[in-house]
Amino acid sequence: MIRVTTDMAVLRLAAALVLAPLLFGVIARTQALFAGRKGPPLLQMYFDIAKLMRKGAAISRTTTWVFRLGPIVGLACVATGCLLLPFAGFPALVSFPGDFVVLTALLALMRFVTVSAALDTGSSFEGMGASRDVQFSALAEPALLVSFAVLARQTSALSMSDMFGQVSAIFWHQAAPSFILVLAALFIVFLAENARIPFDDPNTHLELTMVHEVMVLDHGGPDLGFILYGSALKMWILGALIVNIVIPIHAVSAWPDIFLFIMGMLLLAVAVGVVESVMARLRLLQVPQLLVGAVGLAILALMLMLGA
Amino acid sequence: MMTLFIASVSLLLATGFAALFSRKGSLIAVAGCVIAGLMGLIPVLASLLTSAAFTLRTGWDVPFGAFSLEIDPLSAFFLLPVFLLSPMAALYGQSYLKGQGGHVKSWFFWNSLVASMAVLVAARNAVLFLVAWEIMSLCSFFLVVCEHRHAESRRAGWIYLVSMHLGTAFIVALFLLLGNSAQSFDFSEFPQAGIVSSPAATLLFFLSVVGFGTKAGFVPLHVWLPEAHPAAPSHVSALMSGVMIKMGIYGLVRTLTFFSTYPFSWAAVLIAVGALSGILGVLFAIAQHDVKRLLAYHSVENIGIITLGLGIGLLGTSLQLPFVAVIGFAGGLLHVLNHAVFKSLLFLGAGAVAVRAGTRDMDQLGGLLKRMPRTGVTFFIGAAAIAGVPPLNGFVSELLIFYAGFDSIVQGSVPVVAATVAAVAALGLIGGLAVACFTKVFGIVFLGEPRSPAAEQAHEADALMTGPMLVLASLCGLIAFTSPLILGVFNGILPGLTHLSEAACSFRLDRAAHTLEGFLVAAAAVLVVTAVLVWVRRRLLSGRPQTVVVTWDCGYVTPSARMQYTSSSFAQPLVDLFAHVLRTHTHLEAPAGHFPAIASIRTHTADIFRRLLFDPLFAAVQRALIAGHFLQHGRVHLYVLYIALTLLILFAVKLQ
Fold this sequence. Notes:
The structure holds two protein chains of two kinds.
Chain A: E1 3-4, H1 9-35, H2 44-53, E2 57-60, H3 65-84, E3 94-95, H4 99-120, H5 124-155, H6 160-166, H7 169-193, H8 212-215, H9 221-246, H10 254-278, H11 287-307
Helix pairs in contact in A: 1-9, 1-10, 2-9, 3-4, 3-9, 4-5, 5-6, 5-7, 5-11, 7-9, 7-11, 9-10
Chain B: H1 2-21, H2 25-50, E1 54-58, E2 67-71, H3 73-98, H4 106-122, H5 126-144, H6 151-182, H7 198-216, H8 225-231, H9 234-256, H10 264-286, H11 291-318, H12 322-357, H13 368-371, H14 373-386, H15 393-411, H16 414-446, H17 453-456, H18 463-481, H19 483-486, H20 490-498, H21 502-541, E3 546-549, H22 567-577, H23 579-582, E4 585-589, E5 600-604, H24 608-626, H25 636-655
Antiparallel strand pairs in B: 1-2, 4-5
């Protein structure tokens, strides 16, 4: 029952692997637009990664192999996640019932190694970021799983490819309120897991206020490049879950679908940019409340669906 | 096959006795334990691989008793950890106790404990079962109080002994009721007892949940775990937490096979108990500073996960959702084996740390990965496995439970969906919190800089201690990567629980095996990409400058190890978030005045169930009993009068 779909496999994988860093460029441009600045080039993230790959490394003497393993395993997790991810109406390259649980667990493994690598430096700043990160993610995980429960119930499917393959205009017509609530929950999880405002400010310059950025403070060179690329892929994966639901119409031919999907991803990045421009970040004490709210939204969505 | 089993148990008992009388006793006993384990594994594996049952039945001069033993696949599955882990923990313990004064006589209790667990799981007569149960409880009590010179150990032993016997009372009541309706104390007669009336059956179910739950550590009956585990020597904790508490799960599962139908309410109870144990177990674990106390609370959490699996299985059976039933039970039972492996590993690792660094207080440790590399690597694997992250075994059983849960969400009616969504959300939260908890343990204990001179001078444990840990760590990976094959052993176990035919079970297990294969594809992909990236990194960095620097300290001139984040600070956001449940006490000496000198903060998270439920309860019982104190005055002639009066009354009653 493992389904391996290889049509245009290279193209579909390449789309994720190549386009993911572009999302950061779009977000930065949107913010710049709001602020009336010109902003960095759209391809800035690619330049950053390329530059880091050409550098040497400065490694703290406190650290062990755990510190070096963190970025590598983290990137391996999200790269594997791309294999499991359905794309633009195509099934995923590898698809099986319960694959979304494996995807969630891969994100958990990424967090496990990233947090361990942060603690390996013995730095209080990184400990602080790690401690906040595990707190937020512990609450985001149930929200993600209950959202998948809503999708599974509505589509009677247990693999992501079947779920998203069946989300169509008819489903939207039947259960629009539930879907909107699930989208809201997923968007909150998306912002929290990718360390965006209102949960975390990727542009802050004070170590004490950072969450994700501070965990990778001591990484440099290729390690930091792996981390940046890994976070881009993570954003692509969680974003694709949302876009796969929002764009239910599948045209007859593949190319319009792919175009539509990529446009959807870029629009999502614009939405993140808008949120970051109009909102301040939340006080740390309020972050858990928002995440618990996301669980609540997903449960409400399920109740609406059962009631209908 | 049963000859091998009996020989194995006899060898355990004989070498155990030798430990009482010989000065080389510990060597004899450990050798006996290892050989007995290997012998015992043969019938166990034979039964698991062929789904066969081996029986042995002889008379026994005990009223209602019969020496009736059977190794069916369900028993064999629970015997597997007994025979697999006890030799490894024994080898470790031999070396561990050498530094603690020997405790040669403790090996008598060790071997008897292992033998009693083996007999318990194979027993098919209630009297034999209870005798083995009692021997198990007593032997483990003596092992807990091994270091009886410490008042803490004696207190922990006392709490353990009392809670075990309270639990046993419920089990005795359970078997008396079952035996009364079946007119026999043989397990084979119980299913024929015809207990169909729902209130009677529900009473039996309640008795077994409370009785066996005390041993397993269901919240709120778990209060003995966080006391007994830190007090006991580490190999004893490993055996108790890895193997012995599973005897409670075995008892519960075996009791379930006595019933032909399960009401929905039982499933709801198990799911609620599992969710509560899981979430509260991990929350209390996060708040602890003592690494063994933390691991003890994690046993409560994992028992919760096992119970969630069993609850979902029960739900599927009661509502005729065969896939949910089969995979729920399979996931719960597989987690029994997985938890046995990684929890023993973690306790052995924690013991090695406690011996080499002289403390179990995480806030005094740090930087041990460089000083104890083998212990560190194996602990890392164990921590990742228990946190339920791929590609290790802890995730496999959770994946099965999730799969069953999501299947029931797709198929079920409204109450079923409500129950399983609660289970799924709870399992998700438990998983997230477990990652928080075990990054904390591993990060604070093994990474960073040492926080005390003792930790700074720690060095690697000897080969007898690290060897078993290496074996257990490789088992964590092996179980995960052979999981689709391992599912096959449930073919023989599940028909009795799910009331489905073996073919029907095997059909569903095959379906689940596909998901596990999918998981293995993903796990293999992670490993391959990791290997590629390691190579890429090495290629990129070759010939480039790699400097060794200090950790970024914000420009501060003299950073010290005391400035690092501690386990308390790491846990603080979560502890604050759940402050209403945890009720952590904070003793704060705030800095005062214009030139503040010394300030301190200490936190302590006591068990709320002990403080708010059991302590007041036992105080009330004590007050009530003191009222009857006047009967007990020490005058023997009046005691004789009591006896005479009792006999007279009994005589009068009988005459009527």
